[in-house]
Design a protein that fits this description.
Largest sheet: 5 strands, parallel
Structural class: alpha/beta
Strand content: 5-15%
Shape: globular
Number of helices: 23
Number of strands: 9
Helix content: 40-55%
């Protein structure tokens, strides 16, 4: 027996920790249960200002690393001495061995992600690879029954570890806030990169997640592009052991296109490219963003709700077949990266009005993220106001400014006195940034006055108004109500479950032809 009965529960908990989303409360619960009295209490939500790092280290993970290393060393000796192990025991040994190996190189991997492209970094990556591959071989490849363990070679595991470190830092350092809403956002972004099952991802999904588009929705100014960038620059990059380097460089490429800022003809050329002479002004061939994007990159389409109907059809083809054509050409080209889209529009309402294709929506909504408003976050965690103000001030003054804390205190004091903590922040983080800049320059900020009509827009007010007029027939009433439910659900399955109908019925009621009758 490889694992004693007395330690079985502890080892199973440690294996769960190894693959649990680090931004979920479940992760902290597991760590507390596993470490017992050795657990170091931290903030309930894992975020940058929560004291998670103490003297540059993660105290609970340091303790867990010790537990893992002890188990791996002891178990490896038993296996080398001929102790028979069940398949389940070998799986646990593999899980904790992977966790132990990651913890050995975590700090160096994180430095590569925080300081990309620094002089001598390629040499440091090569040195880290040599050290890791030796440790990997020692942990797994020299023990009996190696063939029953991990199916991937050391270079694949090294690449996954590098992606985990990049993704963690991109989320942890960029998506700020200690509110439950911010915590949910970080956890959801992690799932968009790795799915909910990190073990399955590392074995099979790592080369396929880029085929699933991500749709980010939320009001203007809530950080949708920040979320998109965190996902886009955290894609899997293979490691080439012969060259002792990452096959396509150490950083993913991220292309952002704001669709609302460009006319349809220019959008088509930007995305798909064009051939010389395809239209007036096309004086040379042009490679579009979809073609430029490498397998490790992402194209971000901001304001997807503004996309022209003809281009919606072309984009749908890209999502269905991963192919497209340049303007003026007939030969197919392949899109190899990940597509991320965002909108502040109510797409259920846009589909009902016939302005957005349902089939395109269903291709986009398999992975949907909703960004919370600034008001929601501050209501849940009022102390975050100072964190957000300091973040904006840091971008103005720089990291090393002695005036940063003093100015942040000045801004928060002014907001408390003049706007109050119940201010709605209709412009969200974008408004807060301008508020900070106004206070820096004028020591005053005057919020814009929004028309009351803005507060009455959307599916719910429109549904209530239509019902109040008592002019809807049965199908119109059902269609408007179904659209209202869809606007409050993240997936078609969720909406169908809430309505108590099957997916085909809901599809029929949301079909473009049917919705066209409701206009």
């Amino acid at each position: 027996m490889l694992i004693e009965k007395s330690e079985r529960r502890l080892i199973e908990l440690l294996a769960r920790v190894a693959y649990t989303n680090p931004f979920l409360p479940e992760r902290v619960t597991l760590e507390r249960e596993l470490l017992g009295s050795d657990f170091r209490e931290t903030a309930p939500v894992l975020h940058f200002e929560a004291g998670y790092l103490i003297d540059g280290m993660q105290p609970n993970l340091v303790r867990l690393r010790g537990v893992a290393e002890e188990f791996v060393t002891r178990s490896r000796e038993r296996l080398m001495n001929g102790v028979k192990a069940t398949r389940d025991e070998l799986d646990l040994f593999e899980d904790i061995g992977m966790f132990s190996l990651y913890m050995l190189i975590e700090e160096e991997l994180e430095q590569f992600t925080i300081e990309p492209g620094t002089p001598g970094q390629s040499t440091r990556v090569q040195a880290l690879w040599e050290s890791f591959s030796a440790q990997y071989e020692r942990c797994f490849q020299r023990i009996p029954g190696w063939g029953q363990l991990t199916p991937h070679p050391a270079e694949h595991v090294f690449a996954v570890f590098f992606q985990i470190a990049r993704a963690f830092n991109n989320i942890f350092l960029q998506i700020l806030g200690g509110s439950p809403a911010a915590a949910r956002l970080r956890a959801t972004v992690w799932q968009s990169i790795f799915s909910y099952d990190l073990k399955r991802y590392s074995r099979w999904l790592y080369g396929r997640m880029d085929q699933i588009a991500t749709l980010i929705t939320g009001p203007s100014g809530t950080g949708k592009e920040l979320v998109a960038r965190a996902i886009g620059v955290s894609q899997f990059i293979p490691f080439d052991p012969r060259k002792r380097g990452f096959s396509l460089g150490q950083n993913s490429t991220f292309y952002a296109v704001n669709l609302s800022a460009l006319p349809p003809t220019l959008i088509e050329s930007e995305l798909f490219g064009h051939r010389k002479g395809a239209f007036t002004g096309a004086t040379a061939d042009r490679v579009g963003w979809l073609e430029q994007c490498p397998p490790t990159g992402a194209v971000f389409l901001d304001e997807i709700g503004e996309l022209d109907g003809t281009l919606q059809v072309k984009l749908l083809r890209v999502l269905q077949t991963r192919t497209f054509q340049r303007l003026g050409e007939t030969s197919d080209r392949t899109f190899q990266g990940k597509l991320i889209a965002a909108t502040n529009r109510d797409l259920a309402h846009e589909m009902q009005a016939g302005r957005f294709r349902p089939d395109l929506y269903y291709r986009l909504c398999a992975d949907q993220i909703v960004t919370p408003t600034l008001y929601e976050q501050l209501q849940q965690s009022p102390a975050d106001l100072r964190l957000f103000v300091a973040h904006v001030a840091r971008r103005i003054f720089g990291e090393a400014s002695d005036n940063l804390d003093e100015f942040a205190t000045e801004v928060v004091t002014w907001i408390d006195a003049n706007l109050s903590r119940d201010y709605a922040w209709p412009g969200n983080f974008r408004e807060l940034e301008q508020c900070v800049r106004n206070l820096l320059i004028h020591r005053n900020y005057q919020p814009a006055i929004f028309e009351q009509a803005d507060a009455t827009r959307g599916p719910l007010p429109e549904f209530l108004a239509a019902v109040g007029e008592a002019k809807l027939n049965r199908d119109e009433l059902l269609g408007k109500y179904f659209a209202l439910v869809m606007s409050q659900c993240s997936t078609l399955e969720e909406a169908a479950g809430r309505l108590g109908v099957d997916r085909r019925t809901l599809n029929r009621l949301l079909d473009a032809d049917f919705l066209g009758q409701l206009k």
